[in-house]
Amino acid sequence: MYDTNYHRASSVEEAVKLRSSQDEARYLSGGMTLIATMKQRLAAPSDLVDLRHVASMKGISVEGRKVRIGAGTTHAEVASSSALKSVCPAICHLAGMIGDPHVRHMGTIGGSVANNDPAADYPSAVLALNATVVTDRREIVADDYFQGMFDTALEEGELITAITFEAPEKAGYAKFPNPASRYALTGVFVAKGASGVRVAVTGAGSNGVFRATDIEIALSASWSSDFVASVAVDAGQLMEDMHATPEYRANLVKVMAKRAVAMAG
Question: What does pTM read for this prediction?
Answer without folding.
Answer: 0.95
